[in-house]
Amino acid sequence: MPLSRSSSVLVRRLAVSVVPPLVCAAVVLWVFLSVRDRLPGRIASHIGPGGNADGFSGQGSFLGVAWGVLLGDGVLFGALVYFTRPGNGGQRVLAVIGGAVAVLTGWLATAVLLANTGVHDASSVTLPGAQAALAFGAAALYAAVGWAACGKDEGADSDSGPSADASRLALGDSEIAGWSRVAGSRVLPLTGVLVFASGVVVGVAAGWLSALSLLLIGAAMTLLTGVRETADRRGLTVTPSTVPWPRINVPLQRIAEAGHRPVKPLRDFGGWGYRVRSGASGVVLRSGDAISVRLTTGSEFVVTVDDAATAAALLNTLADRERRTSAGG
Asked: What angle do CA 309, 231, 239 make, to 5 degrees?
């Protein structure tokens, strides 16, 4: 039985994300077995910015880490592609990123193995900067080919945008009202702790400068995963619950209609946090109900939060009042 178009697109995108990690893992293993007798017992496993070795490991450790990264890349991005909803652009991007990262990793791992071949002292190993340029070039070339192989999205799904019953909150012309809630995530803090812990491990093993990006990202993910969402005369405002910045504000003048709908981060937006996809953006911290604002531009802005229906009704009332005021002025 022939596959439907949607199934065919999914198969192609899974192939784009999963095949490169498998192929690169096989190539790394083949190269390792081919040159193992000519490798030093302790090989240079990390090359610093100057092209000189600054990190070392045993042969088995190097192969294990390289395989772990490549196969982990395939499992992670394969799962993300499979569970992300097609038609919103996110699935295609995830597939390309997964494949390109595998090409980059496989190229560099192979180059490091070849650089260690025939060397007696691993500390003398060097790797020209051209190898890094070639690795990034190969990843970029694969990304372009993979993007075309993924096929085009047919457009946003029909369930995006506010729910059909865009209700209003009873509010007199002279009355002032506001709504505010704090929403958080269970996934992002745990991920942040894991990233921060990885940074500590990298810092101890290879130096704190190498670990700086992991430490900063991990700390930010751990501390900035709760947001305060406010609906009032300024529109819809989203800020971190612990600090006043960064701030996202959708003014009443940009709100065509507000509603609420269920959102699944991975399926609808390809992940958690501040997300952007074709025709929609928003702050997605958990699964469940979300404020869904249809903007005057036709795009959608969503924020996951409890009691989203009340916030949407208030925004509709305040937006109606703003339009009447502007028309009367």
From this structure: 115
The residue among 235, 244, 250, 232 whose CA lies nearest residue 301 is: 250
For residue 305, give the 3-state DSSP assignment: coil
**SS3 assignment, position 194:** helix
Between CA 85 and CA 259 the distance in angstroms is 21
Distance of CA 325 to the CA centre of its chain: 41
- Going by C-beta distance under 8 Å and a sequence separation of 6 or more, which residues neighbour residue 185? 225, 226, 272, 285, 286
Q: What's the chain's length in residues?
A: 329
> Whose structure tokens read 């198969």?
11
Q: How far apart are CA 240 and CA 318, in angstroms?
A: 24
Tens of pLDDT along the chain (329 residues) come to: 444 556 788 889 999 999 999 999 999 999 999 999 998 888 888 777 777 777 788 888 888 888 988 998 898 888 888 877 666 567 788 889 999 999 999 998 999 899 899 888 888 888 887 888 899 999 999 999 999 998 876 654 444 455 445 688 777 777 888 899 888 777 677 777 777 887 777 676 656 776 777 788 778 777 667 888 999 989 999 988 777 778 899 999 999 999 999 998 877 887 778 888 778 888 888 888 999 999 999 899 999 999 999 999 999 999 888 888 777 65
Please name the amino acid found at residue 282.
G
Which structure tokens are listed for 215? 């430490």
Helix axes 90-116, 129-150, angle to 10 degrees: 150
| Closest to 103 in 3D by CA, of 184, 17, 166, 37 | 17
Contact call for residues 258 and 315 (beta carbons, < 8 A): yes
CA quadruple 58, 46, 128, 27: dihedral, nearest 10? 60
β-strand pairing of 300-304 with 280-284: parallel
17 close to 78: Cβ distance less than 8 angstroms: yes
pTM: 0.58
The answer to whether the Cα torsion of 285, 288, 291, 296 is positive or negative is positive
